[in-house]
Amino acid sequence: TLNFYDNTVGEHQRHQQLLMLDLEDAFTSNQIHLAYQPKVSLNSGQTESVEALVRWYHPQFQLIPPGDWIPLVEELGSITRVTRWVLGRAAADLARIRNRYGVGTRVAINISARDLALPELADSLEGIVRHHGGMPQDFILEITETAVIENLELTTERLGQLRRNGFSLALDDFGTGTSSLSALTEFPLDEVKIDRRFLTRILADQNRQKVFRTTVELAQSLSLDTVVEGIEDEQTVQWLRQFTDLKGQGFFWGQPVMLDPDQDETQG
To answer: What is the C-alpha to C-alpha distance for residues 76 and 214, in angstroms, rounded to an integer?
Structure first.
């Protein structure tokens, strides 16, 4: 058989290697920033929390999507460095976030399966928050379904530690995996985020509407705050307002906002 070299694959791998070499410098030279995307009450229109989204502005490659480098960092086992940086920066930004969105606004950050493997995680994250004058109660830790099912016993233990320390816990991208229902009942959760794919053709497809309605009723019957991801238009917002106490997140409320003093706040 003949094997052909795919130049695009080679370039992609080279690009990723360059990014990993540049990552350490990115943290020390102010290339990494956070943008904040509101989670909005669909009934009141009030922002109740914001999600911190990490942005890397590379001097050569410009804006690098998280999907191009976060999986690599996880693979290399360095994701906890990123998690701690994000939490520290969000904690430092908390006063400005509340000045913009309201005094009770909390901040959500993402944590990974590798973070959950660390026995000192809860105390370490609490220490970061308190160092910046905040409290764990000010923060929501979002974890994906794939992360929580890798080791059920360990995950339950770690999440319990985080919750006892005062952090709220959210299950991100609900409905994209195979064990969503067990995740809702097994883990000490406060919030569930319904994946954006649930909204595909939702206004025209009655079967999708039934599935969505059942999902919302299930989450709310478990006393979980329920956030719908990926909302982009007024028609979807109006349809979702038939449900009580739903929160929404998406471009309908604008692009994620950067609060860095040296950055344009509308950049995202």
So the answer is: 39
